[in-house]
Amino acid sequence: MVRVRLAPSPTGKLHLGTARTALFNFLFARKNKGAFILRFEDTDETRSTKEYEEDIKASLKWLGLYWDEEYHQMERLARYQEYVEKLIAQGVAEKFKGAVIFRAKKALDKLGIEYKAKVKAVKNKSDELQKDKDLNAYLVENIGRDLLHGPIKGLVSDSVLLRSGNPPIPTFHLAVVVDDYEMKINYVIRGEDHLPNTPLHIVLQRLLSIPTPFYVHLPLILGPDKTKLSKRHGAVAVSDYKKAGYLPEAIVNYLALLGWSEKGKDKEILDLKELIKAFKLEDLQKSPAVFFKEKLDWLNGEWIRQLSVKELTARILDFGYKKVDERMISIIQKRLKRLDEVPYWTDFFFQNIPYKKELLKGELEEKQALEILKLALARFSKTQWKSDKIKIEATSLAQEVNLKPKDLLYPIRIAITGRSVSPPLFESMEILGKDETLKRLEKAMIMLKNSSIRKD
């Protein structure tokens, strides 16, 4: 049975890159009726928090990526000690100042793995035991195979396996090898930034006589400037996109397209069920994917329009905009790209939007704009208050005064909505109500009249 895992560190919110890794693991597991494991690598006690853990879990649930089993490394500390003792017994690891150090050359010699001349690795300044010292590192070729990138090669270096403490804390390299084995993970689908770690992991697996899983290292997600996606490109946490009014369907859809596409198909709008059915590892792309917010906005708008008015209204209410109703949403649905745009399109229903006289008259003369408002007020006061009836009267009035409909409607639109761009005007007038519409027209007339008096 396929068993895959997501192993985030709860030291920050769920990043888009980690969410994509979760998605591909989830799709592969569900496609093959396997298990999707969530494992928190929470051994960094100074940075790991419950708040971040809850954000990761809530974000995964929001995306619909539910897991089958959950583990925490800090609850498994006793297990790592057992494997370390096996390595010490083989002479490939040794205790040093309360920690345990892996010795790369001894391990490679014991396994009979060929390596090139000793090279100097980059100084590991994050490790107190190796600070300002060159690591002993050895280049190995073709030590394994990545299903996406082919032969695996890289440096195997002296590394800390257990940090001193009470109890001792495992480092990433030891914990990931032990956890993957004990949790029966047989496919490791993770970010390409872990590819350099893989030779060491394979060496540890061979020393401990445990099977090597199939590896798939996903290419990075880049920003439009072709550098690694980061905060300088904007929001990078899934929860931030939720707060900004994106739908989970759109996020899942877009993340799937960042590094994967169904061979021979060009369909871009795909839900989770369709993605599960279509997903294949062999369709993953080797080259980095570029994140374009504009493309996500487009996809989000498409997903907004896929929802029924009732469902979209429910989501908007849940998002926090409690005053809107289905009538309002029905006339703005085609214009929305994100849920946080709802106030822009609907605020005028609940309050007078301030505007200046210059906006009210636009390119018209003040007297002409005033006359239009006066005629509109007289005509609409006698109109049956349905959008189609209002439209008929407005069209008739435009013909009578020899104006294009858009010129006639301009000052009316400003008077009612406060903006030159608004939802469909006649439908908006019907929703706003006859009394409030006429009141706003009168207010606009008074503004222009007062202006004319001051000029005179």
TrEMBL record:
Occurrences of domain Glutamyl/glutaminyl-tRNA synthetase class Ib catalytic (ranges): 1-298
GO biological process, one term: glutamyl-tRNA aminoacylation
Keyword flag Secreted: no
Subcellular location per the Swiss-Prot or TrEMBL entry: Cytoplasm
Key words of the record: Aminoacyl-tRNA synthetase, ATP-binding, Cytoplasm, Ligase, Nucleotide-binding, Protein biosynthesis
Domain Aminoacyl-tRNA synthetase class I anticodon-binding: 314-444
UniProt key word Metal-binding: no
Positions occupied by motif 'KMSKS' region: 228-232
InterPro entries tied to this protein: aa-tRNA-synth_I_cd-bd, aa-tRNA-synth_I_codon-bd_sub2, aa-tRNA-synth_I_CS, aa_tRNA-synth_I_cd-bd_sf, Glu-tRNA-ligase_bac/mito, Glu/Gln-tRNA-synth, Glu/Gln-tRNA-synth_Ib_cat-dom, GluQ/Sye
Catalysed reaction, written as an equation: tRNA(Glu) + L-glutamate + ATP = L-glutamyl-tRNA(Glu) + AMP + diphosphate
Primary localization class, coarse: cytoplasm
Intervals of motif 'HIGH' region: 8-18
Gene Ontology CC terms, in alphabetical order: cytosol
Family stated for the protein in its record: Belongs to the class-I aminoacyl-tRNA synthetase family. Glutamate--tRNA ligase type 1 subfamily.
Assembly description: Monomer.
Protein name, as recorded: Glutamate--tRNA ligase
Protein species of origin: candidate division CPR3 bacterium
